[in-house]
Amino acid sequence: MEIELWWLLALPVFFVLGWVAARIDLKHLLSESRALPRSYFRGLNFLLNEEPDKAIEAFLEAAKIDPETVELYFALGSLFRRRGESDRAIRVHLNLIERDGSLTQLSDEQRLHALSELGQDYLKAGLLDRAEAMFEKLRGTSRDEEALRSLLEIYQQEKEWRKAIATAQALPQHLHHMWQKDIANFYCELAADAILNGQGDAARGLLEEALAANRKCVRATLLQGDQAWSEGQMEAAIEFWKRIEGQNPVYLALVAAKLAEAYQKIGRGEQGNLLLRSYLERYSSLDMLDAVYRAELAGEGPQAAYALVRNELHRNPTLLGLDKLLEAQILGAPVERRPDLELVKNLIHSHTRRVARYRCDQCGFKARQFYWRCPACGGWETYPPKRTEEFDLTP
After folding, report:
1. CB-CB contact of 191 with 185 (8 Å)
2. Strand, coil or helix: 358
3. Which value, in Å, is the radius of gyration of the alpha carbons in the chain?
4. Are 74 and 81 contacting, i.e. CB atoms less than 8 angstroms apart?
5. Could you tell me the CA-to-CA distances from 302 to 306, 326, 328, 342 in Å, in that order?
6. Which residues have C-beta within 8 Å of that of residue 58, sequence separation ≥ 6?
7. Same fold, 36-158 and 173-240
8. CATH no., domain 36-158
9. For 121-129, which contacts have Cβ atoms below 8 Å and span 24 or more sequence positions?
């Protein structure tokens, strides 16, 4: 293969151009590295040697010389906050804000960013009043929505439900179902306090507000029934609790025992038992089974309760159901057989304690009792009233 003459002439030219370009890039890199303050490199060295306090001092010194190192503050503060070292994160962001206008001139956006980061530091450290003050400064700025979300978190922690309602309603997406659900729960928190303090009229108004925010708010309907119960209005309480079927029938398990007791108080126990058995047939759950089992045991005796649980086990075999079956069998068994049955029941019960918990759909946190708000992630209505065994058995 012959090589054309012009290729032989072009090769040296390309080589020279490449050499010149490399020299230019090298000079540019060297000039940039010389432009960086020595304190910047000392800070990196301290950071690598796990001496964060000295690193902060070095980076602060670097910021005095070169305002472009402001981003370094943000990176360092965020790092400390993620590591749980909120005091160091606060120190970094405070220094950045305090130096604004003197040695380091921040842009408007950088200053807002610094205030937001400082607010998050205070929030992580549990200094809620200081965090609130920082986020209030961000209202009406380009970070308004971010400030509203953080303020909402603060008000929920402080149980300032009125402020939480106003803040949630100020959010741009407050008409979204998620926010309607949260706002309804804020009203329910206020209503629960009003019921506890004997403020019946105030509680009724707050529960109506909750249902206006979210017509499917089961908690509000449940509290309406509780209030009627506390005032001795059993039939009204029953009617309120029966409405839950149209909102979300899964939550009927939470009021099943109350329904059975209310029907007993008005002398219609058998009608109540029939209603609960129909709920169990349509909306089977372990909590519902427990309520129906207790009602059947009190009304019809151990044999009827045993037959009920046995039929349910054929339909939905569970360890918790088996525990109930053994309990009913012990009550109706001869005295000489009870020790053996109790031994088996205790063995089963030691296993059912692990699967008899509620689980948050959002974060997976498990608890022995039902919560309207998850203690771990703070989500509202993320705990379905079902035991973990039921989730494990679901295909």
Report:
1. no
2. strand
3. 33
4. no
5. 6, 11, 5, 15
6. 39, 40, 42, 43, 46
7. yes
8. 1.25.40.10
9. 121/77, 121/81, 121/86, 121/89, 121/90, 121/93, 122/86, 122/90, 123/150, 123/153, 123/154, 124/81, 124/84, 124/86, 124/89, 125/86, 125/87, 125/90, 128/154, 128/157, 128/158
Interval 79-104 mean pLDDT: 74
Distance CA 328, CA 231 (A): 35
Query: Do 244 and 256 contact (CB within 8 A), yes or no?
Result: no
Q: Output the CA angle 252-268-323, nearest 5 degrees.
A: 50
Coil, strand or helix at 366: strand
- The total of other beta-carbon atoms located within 10 Å of residue 218's CB is 23
Q: How far apart are CA 100 and CA 242, in angstroms?
A: 62
State the pLDDT confidence band at 303, using cuts at 50, 70 and 90. confident
255 in Cβ contact with 223 (< 8 Å): no
Query: Angle CA(274)–CA(276)–CA(280) in degrees, nearest 5?
Result: 115
CB distance 207 to 223 below 8 Å: yes
Task: Give Cβ neighbours of residue 87 (< 8 Å, ≥ 6 apart).
Answer: 125
* Rounded Cα distance, 209 and 237, in Å: 19
β-strand partners of 52? none
85 vs 256: CA distance, rounded Å? 48
In one letter, which amino acid is 342?
E
User: Is the CB of residue 279 less than 8 Å from the CB of residue 288?
Assistant: yes
306 vs 391, more confident:
306
Domains in the chain: boundaries = 36-158, 173-240, 248-356, 357-395
- Which residues share a beta bridge with 359? 366
Q: Quick one: which H or E segment has residue 367? A: strand 366-367
Q: Are the CB atoms for 69 and 42 separated by under 8 Å? A: no
Prediction pTM value: 0.76
Tokens at residue 333, please? Answer: 């068994």
Token output for 121: 């530091």
Report the topology of domain 173-240. 1.25.40
What is the average per-residue pLDDT within 157-161?
Answer: 93
Residue 354 has pLDDT above 80, yes or no: no
Instruction: Report the amino acid identity of residue 101.
Output: G
